[in-house]
Amino acid sequence: MTETASLFSLFASSFLAATLLPGGSEAVLFGVLKAYPATLWTALGVATLGNTLGGMVSFGMGWLVPQTRRLKHVEKVRRHGTPALLLAWAPLIGDALCLAAGWLRLNPWQAALYMAIGKFARYWVIAYAAS
Question: In this structure, are residues 7 and 45 in contact, taking their beta carbons and an 8 Å threshold?
């Protein structure tokens, strides 16, 4: 697989992993960095962008849910606001946080920023382990 194809696979994997679909973008990032160590910053950017965009899809899905329904994790997100999305990377609760933030109609730009920061930090730890 070429470097470009690997980065595209990383983007697709990180995007899908952040939606409600299961996925393991961490393993893909690790593999890309082992095969192409010079792509460190590009790979971190691609993984973060894909995962953040996937998180924003979940955010948008939450926005579309009528507010007559009660969503789990809503009170935590309501209490902490968009900074709660620093944990959007976390298994099991990350998708729920993104959905809840959308349902609460939180600022989408701030939501994307906090998601990106948390997701980048997680990928940075993986990149460090790969080096």
Answer: no
